[in-house]
């Protein structure tokens, strides 16, 4: 394609940003849709964020926000949708004539990944490992899907804070367990920590006993696609989901918010193939 003055700019801001997969698949969607647009990775330092807002507002039709700015970006937006307010984090910004609107598509990404795998959380004992940014979104969605939530995090105070936030919004009981004291009481285990992520791919956030009778093992990590935890789940016959579908579905939703165009199931399958085959 030819870049011209009419080319619409999209991107992802964060630091670091070099390893983001979003430019790969967002540009693929742009090509599939034959749009005069381009999606760029933009490294913005913490000191540079405020100063960058003017440039983003004047030049970009929309952008994604990743670590470490999903919360900080909220200070610079004109409006924030209800879902993003609930999570306290924004991953998608749409520029409407100089007004910036914030959304969070991570939750939709998670839910769609479950639907694709025909996995149902309702009434299930769900163990969530981690209490960071990703865990927060997952925890809200697990509750909304009717899962009975237990959180185990290295820093237990952080898990308690997350449980308190959930209780502020929903009338639910959330169990907190020390990671070292976990018993094999769960039907579903979801890892939202980076344990097992490249380059430390031999690490696993759970032991064998915990996984033995589990129905579903879900790891939000996508580098590698098959973590040690996912391998364990497969070994014991559990359904498994890796982090790729969530990543793709959240990005697809961002694209739809920016452009108003639907991405078809066929196009999504094409993106999945491309990402599976690139060196993750
Ligand atoms: P984050 O906000 O930094 O949170 C990290 C969480 O993992 C915290 O609960 C932290 O515990 C825990 N943790 C970190 N290192 C640990 C270790 N060595 N042992 C035990 N626990 C550890 O990060 P995040 O944004 O939630 O991201 C977490 C993971 O999710 C990353 O691998 C990221 O790539 C992945 N992710 C995937 C998607 C997707 O679409 N598939 C989306 C978002 C994130 P403490 O509280 O004790 O520090």
Structure description:
With 280 residues, this protein is of the alpha/beta class. The chain has helices at 22-32, 49-59, 82-87, 106-116, 133-144, 156-169, 208-211, 228-235, 244-259, 265-277; strands spanning 8-14, 37-43, 60-65, 79-80, 92-96, 99-103, 125-129, 148-152, 175-176, 188-191, 216-219, 239-241. It has a six-stranded mixed beta sheet, sandwiched between helices. A six-stranded parallel beta sheet has the order 9-8-7-10-11-12, sandwiched between helices. Helix 5 links the parallel strand 7 (125-129) and strand 8 (148-152). Helix 1 packs across helix 10 (265-277). NADP nicotinamide-adenine-dinucleotide phosphate (NAP) binds at residues 67, 106, 109, 130-135, 153-155, 158, 192-195, 197, 220-222, 243, 246-247, 250.
Provide a brief overview of the structure.
The protein has 280 residues and is α/β, with parallel strands linked by helices. It is 38% helix and 20% strand.
Q: Mean pLDDT, as a whole number? A: 96
Bound molecules: NADP nicotinamide-adenine-dinucleotide phosphate
Helix content: 25-40%
Describe the largest sheet: 6 strands, mixed
Order of adjacent strands in the largest pleated sheet: 2-1-3-5-6-4
Number of helices: 10
Number of strand segments: 12
So what's the overall shape? globular
Low-confidence stretches: none
Structural class: alpha/beta
CA distance, first residue to last residue: 26 Å
The sequence of SSEs as H and E is EHEHEEHEEHEHEHEEHEHEHH
Tell me the β content: 15-25%
Radius of gyration: 19 Å
């Amino acid at each position: 394609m030819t870049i011209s003055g009419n080319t619409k700019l999209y991107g992802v801001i964060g630091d670091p940003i070099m390893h983001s997969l979003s430019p790969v698949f967002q540009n693929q969607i742009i090509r599939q849709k034959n749009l005069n647009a381009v999606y760029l990775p933009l490294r913005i330092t913490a000191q540079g964020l405020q100063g960058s807002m003017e440039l983003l507002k004047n030049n970009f039709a929309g952008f994604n926000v990743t670590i470490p700015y999903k919360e900080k970006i909220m200070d610079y937006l004109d409006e924030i949708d209800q879902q993003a307010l609930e999570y306290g984090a924004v991953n998608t910004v749409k520029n409407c004539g100089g007004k910036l609107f914030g959304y969070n598509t991570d939750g939709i990404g998670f839910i769609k990944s479950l639907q694709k795998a025909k996995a149902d959380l309702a009434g299930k004992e769900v163990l969530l490992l981690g209490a960071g940014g990703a865990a927060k979104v997952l925890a809200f969605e697990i509750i909304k899907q009717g899962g009975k939530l237990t959180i185990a995090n290295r820093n237990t105070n952080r898990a308690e804070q997350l449980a308190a936030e959930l209780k502020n919004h929903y009338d639910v009981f959330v169990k907190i367990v020390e990671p070292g004291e976990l018993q094999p009481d769960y039907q579903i285990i979801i890892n939202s920590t980076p344990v097992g992520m490249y380059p430390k791919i031999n690490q696993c956030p759970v032991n064998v006993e915990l996984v033995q009778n589990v129905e579903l093992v879900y790891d939000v990590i996508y580098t590698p696609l098959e973590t040690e935890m996912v391998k364990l789940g497969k070994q014991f016959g559990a359904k498994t989901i890796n982090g790729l579908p969530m990543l793709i579905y959240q990005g697809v939703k961002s694209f739809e918010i920016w452009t108003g165009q639907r991405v078809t199931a066929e196009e999504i399958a094409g993106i999945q193939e491309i990402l599976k085959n690139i060196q993750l």
